[in-house]
Design goal:
By secondary structure, the protein is α+β, with helices and mostly antiparallel strands. Helix content is 42%, strand content 26%. The protein is built from 13 helices and 21 strands. The strands form four sheets. A ten-stranded mixed β-sheet has the order 2-11-8-17-18-19-20-16-15-14, with helices on both faces. Strands 1, 3, 5, 6 and 7 form a five-stranded antiparallel β-sheet that branches. It is rod-shaped and about 145 Å long.
Length: 537
């Protein structure tokens, strides 16, 4: 059996081996400068000190965001005092002025993962001799809210004009016309005969015109009701066809009717071709003959069948429907033209994106244009901010908690699709907060929002002063996060306002998609921040 002393010795030896293996690797970082001008190159170096050689994986270029990697050098290995030093250098820069945090770098050495410390880097503007530069006047303040109101007024005016137009033309567009039968061929012929009979007749001046109308009236009546080719037939051809119809029994025409018609048509031919000028009495007599002939022919015509009457009714209904549809199409064209014109004019004045989103009722635009924003103090004493909707106190699942502290209050707001999140956190520590720990707590807040799904975080920071002259730290930048609706990675932004007192840390955190309306909401919220100081301080 194995003695207890042997077991103890084995356990101690194993612990020593584990401890030795844990401390046998060390990651050393160095950077030649933490303050550069825009575009200036700095060298960042990672060194792994180890007693043994193993597979090693240095970070890739994208892990250095917000800094840009100009060049990646090959790794190098040297031996010193029976230790191996594996190193790799990166040439970094940035082309935007600001204060940045170079994130922690991860180096995988065999089965061990090593992390470097984050670095604070200041990128400064290149000094410019302003005496040699042209100076320009400051541009006037651009008020988007006024533009939004103007667009509303124009929209209301446009709708009013369209409504007035539809109201004025409502009878033409929407009213159903009652069906009215057109005059029958007999009624039309009788009406035209009456007009001719009442007109003045002068043998020499208008005989040709008079008899041409008279001939056309009887021929047109026969064309419709008796013989299809009456209009283009000669007088002899017309009489021949009418006699054929009489002989066949299709129409019971009398010989006197045919003779009277023949005489009038012959007179009309003489007037037309032989310059014959009948007296007024003869013209009036011929007019009466045609009038009686029309009556006689109409009286012997068969009555229309029910099918013919129905067909005639349906035909006229179809005509009415076509006319109504034509009026509706005209109204739609006018309405569409007015609407398109208004949209184009508004797009020129206010921008197409804003007009489109106003028409389609974009949720973020509606949130921005909320009529009465809410101004509330969150915490006691806390942070006063103005937001489109009030933030809700979180009682469970608090997001922003820190070691050796009590989260005395946390408030949150989420818009409809969670593309914007606003938090206010008030934390009290058990001990006094040292100024050198400010960065640590800000970094921890960044770690928290990273755990919420943000990636590729670009970090900038600057001093911040509220409207009531409370001083704090502003950390902001761009980031990618997962769209909760589509599951796709989208571009976004974040802002953190941190305020430190003797033992309290108050902060406003805003995370949102990169959207013009959410950007404006964020700016408005941040500009409204005021800090209520503790009366005991």
């Amino acid at each position: 059996m194995i003695s207890n002393n042997f077991r103890k010795s084995t356990l101690i030896a194993a612990l020593i081996c584990i401890t030795t293996s844990m401390i046998s690797q060390e990651l050393v970082t160095s950077i030649d400068s933490t303050s550069i001008f825009i575009g200036e190159e700095i060298t960042y170096k990672l060194e792994v000190h180890s007693d043994t050689l193993n597979l090693i994986k240095f970070p890739e270029s994208k892990s250095f965001i917000p800094m840009e990697v100009l060049k990646t050098y090959d790794s190098d290995t040297i031996t010193s005092n029976e230790k191996y030093i594996i190193s790799k250098k990166y040439a970094l820069t940035n082309f935007d002025a600001g204060n940045y945090i170079l994130p922690k770098q991860k180096v995988v050495f065999g089965d061990t993962t090593l992390y470097s410390n984050s670095k604070k880097i200041e990128v400064k503007l290149v000094t410019v001799d302003t005496s040699k530069q042209r100076l320009y006047d400051i541009k006037p303040i651009f008020s988007t809210n006024k533009e939004h109101n103007y667009f509303r007024y124009i929209s209301y005016l446009t709708l009013l004009l369209i409504s007035v137009f539809i109201y004025i033309n409502r009878n033409k567009i929407f009213k159903n016309k009652k069906f009215k039968y057109e005059k029958s061929p007999y009624q039309k012929a009788k009406g035209e005969i009456n007009l001719i009979a009442k007109s003045d007749y002068t043998a020499v001046q208008n005989a040709k015109e008079y008899y041409s109308k008279l001939s056309f009236i009887i021929r047109n009546f026969l064309e419709i009701k008796v013989f299809d080719h009456s209009l283009e037939s000669t007088t002899n051809e017309l009489l021949f066809e009418l006699k054929r119809i009489k002989s066949s029994g299709e129409l019971n025409l009398t010989s006197s009717t045919l003779n009277n018609l023949h005489q009038v048509l012959q007179t009309a031919d003489l007037v037309k071709f032989a310059k014959h000028y009948p007296d007024e009495d003869i013209a009036k007599k011929d007019t009466e003959v045609i009038n009686i002939t029309i009556d006689e022919i109409n009286n012997i015509l068969p009555e229309p069948t029910i099918e013919e009457l129905k067909k005639d009714y349906e035909f006229h209904q179809k005509l009415l429907k076509q006319e109504r549809n034509k009026n509706i199409k005209k109204a739609i064209i006018v309405f569409t033209s007015l609407l398109i014109s208004c949209v184009l004019i508004a797009s020129v004045l206010f921008g197409f994106t804003y007009v489109k989103d106003s028409i389609l009722r974009n949720d973020n635009l509606i949130l921005l244009e909320t009529k009465n924003w809410v101004t509330t103090e969150y915490g006691a004493p806390g942070i006063i901010i103005e937001t489109p909707e009030v933030l809700t106190r979180k009682l469970l699942d608090l997001n922003f908690t820190y070691l050796n502290s009590n989260n005395i209050s946390e408030f949150a707001f989420y818009n409809n699709d969670n593309s914007m999140q606003i938090y206010v956190s008030n934390t009290r520590f058990n001990d006094k907060i040292k100024p050198e720990d400010f960065q640590k707590y800000i970094d921890y807040t960044l770690d928290i929002i990273e755990d919420k799904g943000l990636s590729n975080i670009v970090v900038k920071y600057e001093n911040f002063t509220t409207a009531n002259e409370a001083e704090g730290i502003k950390v902001y930048g761009s980031a990618d996060f997962i769209d909760p609706n589509s599951g796709k990675i989208i571009s976004g932004k974040y802002s953190i306002l941190g305020f430190f007192t003797e033992n309290e840390f108050k902060q406003l955190i805003i995370i949102h998609a990169d959207d013009i309306y959410l950007n404006e909401i964020t700016d408005n919220v941040i500009s409204s921040v005021e800090l209520i100081k503790n009366q005991q301080q």
